[in-house]
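Format is chain and fold; as here:
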Amino acid sequence: MTLKHYCKYLVSFIALALATTSNAVPLTFEVSGTISDKILSSSNYETVPLSHPEWNGLEVTGTLSLDLERLAINHQTTFEVTLHNKEDEPNRRADWMSFEITNPDGSNILISDSTPIYPNPDSYPPANDASTFLTHYVNDSAFYVSRDYSAFLEPYPRNYFYIALLAMGGNADKLTTGADYYNAMIYPEFANINNWAHVAQFNEAGVGHEYYFTITSLKRSEVEVSEPSSLLILMSGLLLILLRKLDTL
């Protein structure tokens, strides 16, 4: 093998290292809201159950995580609409989405595949699903999220989380600024048709929490991505110069 071939392999290795250091991280959204026994659903305020009525009116905060880099581009993706579900994942898995929220009593609810499911999922297949879509039209904009990880053939355990934001009419285009998850801003205060989130987690004995809340804020978190090493960049540049010199020989 010639020196030129060695240099080509080394350049490829360094390029791979540079790509690895700049891989995208999952998108995260910080969600805030007010627990309520009345939510805006289909333009009307609907009375809903709370497992802890004393939490009515209290604030909650949570984090929604979407690892969209793992998904294929859905055929329903357009300038105005982006839709993702577990059918886009190569192995039809739903663990690209998770949600964690802090309850008013300080406890946490985590909706993800890391939550144990009893009875055993092998004998009681879990309902493990995830989907989300984001739309932006002049008179119709929406943001929806659904994550369900539950025992399929039994009433418990239950683990699920939903977000429903929908605006129609004159200010509908202010709910979302676009349909690109990486750039769009979401303003729940303009949701005049649907504005609610529903979270529930019950163990195999049926003990747990369930409540709804009105979404007051939904902001994409800014996550720092590690920069490639300056030494790797310098080495890559020097090797490219060497390759050009070798080509002239």
